[in-house]
Amino acid sequence: MGEPLESCFAPDLLAGRSALVTGGATGIGKEICRVLGQHGARVAMVSRKEENLRAACDELAAEGIDARWFSADVRDAAAVAQVVAGCADAFGRLDVVVNNAAGNFPVPISGLSPNGFKAVVDIDLLGTYNVTKAAFEASLKEHGGQIVNISAPFEMKGASLQAHVAAAKAGVDSLTRTCAVEFGPYGIRVNAVAPGHISGTEGVRRFSEATGADTSDEHRANNPLGVSGHGQDIAYTVLFLCSPAARFISGQVIAVDGGGTADQLKMGLGRV
Ligand code: NAP
Question: How far is the CA of 272 from the centre of ligand 1 (A)?
């Protein structure tokens, strides 16, 4: 995934803390596990495919990170409650929860079935709710912590081929704000990170496949910086949000997209 970026954070920033990352075995989620682990956190990844979970844990363990895995479908509230409680038990407590798991298959509304729409809303939105609620009950309400939801920068715009994803992520953004309000008194901060085009990811690969276009170039042209993001750009934003430097930030959706969201008119002026 692009050029690696050296950390500008203290290596022990999250020492003694533990994090659960859904969808942490692949793509952006794995990069989040890696960066949190490189800064001292013990990390647990939760998703469905055991072969991916094992491979990612082995990869991070070889880098000296305390990484564990739990298999669950985030749509299944009972399974999620069991896994989150098991994770809190294994670590002694849970400090950070990153809701990153998502479904995505680019398709126009004309080709999208009700089941397809529901599947993505269930994974992205209901899954975020299930994991958040379970983590609050199992650990966070006792001592506070941070929740970071991985969204997408669609809330104020339409997004072709993404009706299901855009609707689900708008719900995630709304849930982020409500959780920030309800959980603030427990010392829990809740924020969301909305990635722009992140090169080398499954999401982007599927988009290229569906459109037959070189979406890298298209997205580069679609943000003022003219570049694609790296998984680390999302992971370091999550790390910052989990750090004391972000102690007064809650209920926010932060677009990490090269300025793409700011550039509504796409005037294509370049330098002016
Ligand atoms: P990815 O590699 O496809 O990651 C998705 C992860 O979610 C997988 O590890 C998958 O594992 C897990 N997952 C899917 N359904 C699940 C379920 N029902 N229960 C538990 N886990 C499930 O995707 P990515 O491109 O890195 O995207 C990561 C996040 O960033 C997503 O929230 C996505 O919407 C967001 N995002 C990405 C981009 C981008 O440019 N890539 C842009 C905007 C937003 P299993 O299949 O094994 O369960």
Answer: 37
Cβ of 150 closer than 6 Å to ligand 1, yes or no, is yes
- How much is the pTM? 0.97
**Model confidence pLDDT, tens digit, residues 250-269:** 999 999 999 999 887 766 66
C-alpha–C-alpha distance, residues 255 and 53, integer Å: 28
Range of the domain at 120: 18-256
Residue 102 Cβ < 6 Å to ligand 1 = yes
Q: How many domains does the chain have?
A: 1
CB atoms within 10 A of CB 142: 14
Q: Is the dihedral of CA 77, 78, 80, 84 positive or negative?
A: positive
Nearest Cα to 189, choosing from 239, 250, 110, 126? 250
Distances (CA, A) of 137 to 42, 82, 204, 255, 261: 20, 11, 35, 29, 35
- The verdict on the CB of residue 201 being under 6 Å from ligand 1 is yes
Nearest CA, atom 41, ligand 1: 203
Asked whether 49 lines ligand 1 (CB < 6 A), one says: yes
Q: What is the CATH number of the domain that holds 86?
A: 3.40.50.720
For residue 224, the one-letter residue type is P
> Using CA atoms, how far apart are residues 98 and 41, in angstroms rounded to an integer?
13
Is there a domain that residue 135 lies in?
yes
Find tokens 């659960």 and name the residue.
20
pLDDT tens digit sequence for 197-221: 999 998 888 888 888 877 666 666 6
